Every structure is written in structure tokens, then in C-alpha cells.
Amino acid sequence: METYGIGLIGCGTVGSGVARILLEHTERLTARTGKKLQLRRVLVRDPAKRRQVELPPGLVTTRLEDLKTDPNIQVVAELAGGVDWPRRAVLELLEAGKDIVTANKALLAEHGAELFDAGRRFGRAIAFEASVAGGVPIITALTQSLAANQITAVQAILNGTSNFILTGMSEENLPYRDALAEAQRLGYAEADPTLDVDGTDAAQKLAILAQIAFGVNARLDSFERRGIAEIDSIDIQYARELGYTIKLLAEAWLSGRKLALHVSPVLLRKHDPLALVRGPYNAIHLVGDVVGDTLFYGRGAGQMPTASAVVADLIDMAVGRAHNTFRSLRLWCGNGGNIELQPSSTVRSRFYLRMFVEDRPGVLAQICTVLANYRISITSLIQHEALEDHEGDIVPLVIMTHTASTADFRAAVADLADLPFLRETIAYYPVAD
Amino acid sequence: METYGIGLIGCGTVGSGVARILLEHTERLTARTGKKLQLRRVLVRDPAKRRQVELPPGLVTTRLEDLKTDPNIQVVAELAGGVDWPRRAVLELLEAGKDIVTANKALLAEHGAELFDAGRRFGRAIAFEASVAGGVPIITALTQSLAANQITAVQAILNGTSNFILTGMSEENLPYRDALAEAQRLGYAEADPTLDVDGTDAAQKLAILAQIAFGVNARLDSFERRGIAEIDSIDIQYARELGYTIKLLAEAWLSGRKLALHVSPVLLRKHDPLALVRGPYNAIHLVGDVVGDTLFYGRGAGQMPTASAVVADLIDMAVGRAHNTFRSLRLWCGNGGNIELQPSSTVRSRFYLRMFVEDRPGVLAQICTVLANYRISITSLIQHEALEDHEGDIVPLVIMTHTASTADFRAAVADLADLPFLRETIAYYPVAD
Questions:
Q1: Looking at the domain assignment, is residue B364 inside a domain?
Q2: Which of A66, A98, B44, B351 could form a disulfide with A93 if both were Cys (CB 3.0 to 4.6 A apart)?
Q3: Which residues of chain B are within 8 Å of residue A315 when distances are taken between CB atoms?
Q4: CA distances (Å), origin B71, targets A176, B26, B121
Q5: What is the ipTM of this complex?
Q6: How far is the alpha carbon of B351 from chain A, nearest alpha carbon, in Å?
Q7: Scanning every residue of chain B, which has its alpha carbon at the shortest distance from the alpha carbon of A316?
Q8: What predicted TM-score, i.e. pTM, was given to this entire model?
Q9: pLDDT tens digits for range A325-349
């Protein structure tokens, strides 16, 4: 039986999981591929470090050269993290004739064009199912299963850390910092959670989905990105009162030839399937012009779900499917069609707006006048009694608007912030229809 | 640019949808495949019949021979329905060197082994994404995306007609016949709905999933199959009162090396993701030993969702992926591993049990004694006041049991039916944990 040689870069959480599957489930992998999958080399920075998998002697190396020059390694799974070193390593491996599997969303979001171009030039393939939504096979869905469709909308929960924190804030009324601490305790958030909670992680994944679904090369600085760290529990409570749940969504939607993109906390109706996604799970709602609505749900991170996706890619490589996909898709090759990125300021949406104001005559009239100046209509309004932890004369005011352009809405918020009776900062989030 | 020739068998609802995509979206299909996909022949029974698509002149034929002998037809999509004639047609086409795409679940459930064997013998491929759950790419998920996993459980809503009817019964309190009439009016149920509502359609799809996920060749008569036609609205109401929703589920789950399978109305906890699937939608909850829980949701039937899946298979054929998949999977080839079908009678489950009984002393004691004789414990019991449409002395009695074997439970039900104070038939359904 033919042997198919595999190299690994990185043996941290995901790398250990991949190594375990390759070492412990050889029979299963042979049944799926008709080949003997063999883990030949594992590249690490520190060979002395304790790992979550016991590797056979002789596999560990610190030299990329050992992977490049082994003629029996056909594919390398890059699971190291970071951007600059993996970029150089992948380019060298492609040139050395190795196919690449990667879970590195930052690498693809920043250097996808260069890497895919190199892959094509050297006749190799790159597979990256694990880079978006971990165990949820969204890349295969977009590149194969829904290939008869023009995707018209993507609405997704792509950051499990943020969703876990928001679930805690919503269901247990925890303040942000306590929900984050709980996520850290359970391993759903890292010690420095910045890239998860500020929306960067979700934005990198959205950029990859935008490339695949719309052929649009969306740089991270070209679309709106907000995270969850600024969300006040009070807005989660008001949203609930209005029949909504706040979720960190990565969204892309097509209007004619224009693609709107953003990562933002969004108010979703409480019965929306995405509103029901709890804890560390991911879910992606796709709309295709032929198939209609579809939804894909599962674990978006973690050792074994991500390893499941990496090994699926290795199997695709071993049976040759990945090469067919890579050749026929021509991703990041600059001819992705005629869809253009819509400037964030022109994106239209309904909005949730919450202020704390002094409770005195004329306040509401002035607020409504500012909104009217920007042609923004109000659909509903809640004014509650003053809260315990505020002065007796300060009341929260919640307004839901009709559809408005982001630019108009922002300008209105800036004007509102200048009003003399405003207290604290204004909170606002888009509302999904 | 290379041309890739396609033949169609059948130009009914799905066939018309496929033809429309092939004729109207040529640019899109070329971008996905790097080839010019060309619809060359459409085989129909009655060329004079009015169709939902306008076919270019010269495409329609009534002779299978015209597809077999056209050297420029590489693949034929079989969308005719029925079993015997399509079986012969597919065998002849494979022998003539054509690859096959089919949406025909009955054909695969009955003759999968013969057809896949012929495909291998003639070096051709068979793809069948559209045969299960229409626009939901569950075949690709199982054969590719989750290939690193041993699937341990499948729990699925695979019949949109039944789910639409149950949704109407549950949310609008309609009796079965009114909900069915509404489904027929909206085109979700056929004039003769038998195969949908008696569980046959879901069982055929489950048999296909069992082959792919577990390598088990499950004949339709080898597992339990119940439909929805006998469900009384009253049981939907009692289930709701207990916190459950009744869904027609196709389930398969692995215990050691034994596979339990059934199609049955099942009580699901009301927050279970599958309990939330409404109307004509399908959803499949898969558990893999590596990835954990995943869920796939979308339209399981209808012209365009099914056509989306058929065209995805045609694209897979055009780029060569389908051949890699077909070769490496070796489905229906009799060496699917060592998983055995568990006899239905030994399957263990919790049960919902509803009786109408005369309201007199000693009744409950006798019922409990019968259950105890078969070592069946009760977890909860509801006894309501008599209903309006029953005699004053007849009351409904609802019992939820602990886990019991199906054989024991059935035997207990048979004994209960002999008790003198029983009225009407006993209703019982498994309860998902």
C-alpha cells in the first residue's frame, strides 16, 4: 500500500491533537484514503518542552530543512501561529514541492494572495478548512457544496470566546469582566484575550470567507470592526426587553455588485437561529441564490474540533481532492469577478441607541430633533425609571431606529454627544432585520 | 476552453431546476470549474409535455441510447424517480462510460451495492448529494469534512413534509388531517403523501446515511419505521406540557460495535436544536468522536435546493473531485468494517406512554404492576381531568418511563391493552435524552 508522508509545524494544542489522530487512528485513515498516512516529522521551537502527545523517537526537529528535504513528505500542516515566520516557511515548502494545510487565519487574511500565487506557480495545493470556524466545515460548504450558488449573505458567529462571554452576560447577568474571567478559567479565553474580544479574530475569518464567497479581497482595515469589550450588561437587558439578543456577528451581504462587510455586536431577534447559539459554539448562516437559507453549527475552536478539520484537509490532500479544488477555484488571484467592497459609511441598517439623560422637560424633543436632522426615524422608544446606581435625576433612554446610513447615524450620535443633558457614553449597535 | 457535456434524465420539478441553472448560469459554472458545462441531452417520457424550463431545440429525446452514444456526454444526472427503470438506465450508462449524479434515494437504498459495484467495475463515479436532505450538504460533510471522525450518532429531520405537518399540529393546534391539507395546498405534500408520512422516505435516507457513516448496509425491513399519520394532537399537547416537542426523527447511534437505527416520532426536549426546526426544513445533528457535535440545516426538498445539490455534484464531477471521493470511499462494497445492526427489540430508550382509562379505584395500581413486571420504572405521570369529548368517567393518563428495552416496553404495552378498563388505543413514543 502506498505511504503518504506528513510533516507538522507546531506541536501545541492543535498540533498535538493532529498528531494524536495520525498516530492513534491509522486504520481509520487508511480506510478513508486507501493509503498509509505516516507522520514523518514534527517541527518545534523547543524539543525539550512537554507536549500533550507522545511522539515516536526521531520525529521531532527544529529545522525546517528536515521537512523540505524529506522526499517522502508530501504535505505539511502549518499549525504554528504567527504570521511572518509561517509565511516564509510556507513559501519555502511550496517551492520544495510540498502541499500545505493550514489553520492560520491571520496568515491567509494578510498574505493569502501571495501564498496562493506561489501554490499555483509551484503546482502545489493549499487547504485551510481549519482556519475558519474550526470543526464546522464552512470552507468545504462554500467551495464545493454550494458551488451552484451565488452567495448573497453570510451571517456568522465566528469567535467562540466572544460568544461564550456574551452568553454568560445574557443568561447569568454577569458583567463583562466576570464573564471573561469565567471564559479564562474554562480555557475558552486566553490570558490576553485582546484579539478575540476586539473582533480581530472574527474579522480575519470574515476576510477569508469574503474571498471565497464573493471573490473580494477585503483588507482588515477596509471594513468596520467592533468587539465586545465595551458592551454594558444594561444593553443586553434592554435588548432582551425589546425581544432581541446581542451577538458578535461577522456579516457580509451583497446588494447588486456591492458587498457590505462588518464585524460588530448586533441585535438579533431572539428566535433567530443564530440568537440561539450558546457558549463557545460557532454557527454560520449562508444564503445562496439557488439553495436559499442554510446553517452550519459546531465547535469553532479547541484542540480536537480544529484537529478534525486539519485531518480532513490532510485526507483531501491524500486522495487528491484538495488539488482539484485548489486548481479550479483560483482563490486570491485577482480576477474574482466584479464585486466591490461597499464603504462602511454607506451601509444602511436599523440601529439600537442607548443614552443616559437628565430627566427634565425638552430633552426628548431635542434628541428627536437631532435624529430628524439626519432623516432618522424612530420605531420604538423605552424610557425607564432611574436605576439604583444612578442619581435620581438620570434616566436611561433606549431608541430603536428605522433604516439609516451608518454615516448619518454616526453624525447624529456625534451631535447627541454634544447635548448638555447627556451623561456617560452613548451605546449603539446595528439591528438585524 | 474544454467543454464538459451533461445529460439529464427527467425534466420534472428538479430536472427543470437543474436545466435552468445549467442554461442561465454558464459564466458562474465556468468560473467554478474552468470548463464550459454544456447541457447536451434531456431524456423525457413525453416530449410534448409542458415544462418549467425552456429547452433549446434538439435537446429533448425519448431514447436513452442518445445519451449513451453521445461521446461528448461525460456525466448523466438521473432525476427520473422510480426504481426499476432508473436502475437499468444507470447500469447501462455506467457501462457506456458515463459518470452518474443521482437524487434518487429509493434507488440507492435498494440497489446501492449493485450500482456502486458497477461504477467501480467500469471505472466511473456516482455522486448523490441530492439524495439526502436536498440543499443540506450532508453527504459531503460525512464523506469529506468529518472524515477524521468515527461518527457515533446521527439524529435527523429528513422529511420536510412530516416536519411541516408536525409544526402545524404543534404551533396551530391543527389536527393531522388539516395540517396535511395545508401542506398539500402549499406544495409541501403530494396528493398521495403515503411515502412521506409513513416514514419510508426518511428510512431510505437513513439507510444511505448508515452506509456512509457506519459502513452498514441497512435494509429497510431491518429497522423500526413509524410515521406521523397516527399521531394524535393530544399527544403533542401532553408532550409540550412535559417540556418536549414531537419530531419525526431518523436516528442512528453506535454502542460499541452495535448500531441502533430507527425512524420514529420522538419526544425531544423543547430547547434541543432539532426541536426548533420548523416547517419544511431539514436538519442533521451529527456527533463525531473527534469533532463533537455539529449541526447542518437547510431546505431538504423543493426544486431549487435539490437542484443546488445536483449541480454541486456535476461541478464535483467536472473538476474530478467526485472520482477521488468515489474511489477512496468504497461505499456499499461489503467491507465496511465490523459494525453490526442491533436488533430493534434490544434498543433501549425512555418512553412516553398515553392511555385513556376508566377513572375508578385500583386502575393506577394495575398499570404500575404491569410496568413493574417488565422492570420498567416511571419517571413522571400526568393524570388530567376528563376531556370534553370523552365520557365523564374516562381520563387520559400519561406516563414517562426510565430507560427500558423496546421488547420489554412493547410486551408491557400489549399487556396493558388487555386490561379491562382501557379505552381507545395506547400511544407511545421514544424520548430522546
A1: yes
A2: A98
A3: 144, 147-148
A4: 66, 21, 20
A5: 0.93
A6: 27
A7: B144
A8: 0.94
A9: 999 888 887 655 689 999 989 999 9
